[in-house]
């Protein structure tokens, strides 16, 4: 039915095989990414505690830039999104909900 294209060189053949095989399985990669992001969020929370719950301007971007050498996929948006997901997972008793306050 389908014709396969002839691969001309050995390096091209290796490249095709490399694309077909998964070097790192997705769940393991996901766990590694999550562990890295958790570590960065922990550093951010430590700095937040040092400065009285307020982060100085550029703190997150400086932490991301320091980790960029080892993790080139890392950017500020991923860290912010991960922090939002972690905050959403907190029980509602720990968050500041205005629904719990009754207007008297």
What key phrases describe this protein's structure?
single chain, 104 residues, mainly alpha, 4 helices, 57% helix, elongated
Distance between the termini: 75 Å
> How many distinct beta strands?
0
Q: Tell me the β content.
A: under 5%
**Multimeric organization:** single chain
What order do the SSEs take from the amino end to the carboxyl end, as H and E? HHHH
Low-confidence stretches: 100-104
Structural class: mainly alpha
Task: Output mean pLDDT.
Answer: 80
Total of DSSP H or I helical runs spanning 4+ residues: 4
Rg computed from alpha carbons, rounded to a whole number of angstroms: 22 Å
Q: Summarize the amount of helix as a percent range.
A: 55-70%
Largest sheet: none
Q: What characteristic shape results from the CA principal axes?
A: elongated
Fold blueprint:
Layout: H1 10-20, H2 26-50, H3 59-67, H4 76-89
Helix pairs in contact: 2-3, 2-4
Describe the structure.
The chain has helices at 10-20, 26-50, 59-67, 76-89. α2 (26-50) crosses α3. With 104 residues, it is an all-alpha fold. The chain has 4 helices and no strands. The longest helix has 25 residues, at 26-50. The model is unreliable at 100-104 (pLDDT under 50). It has a domain at 22-89.
Report a brief summary of the structure.
The chain has 104 residues and is mainly alpha-helical. It is built from 4 helices and no strands.
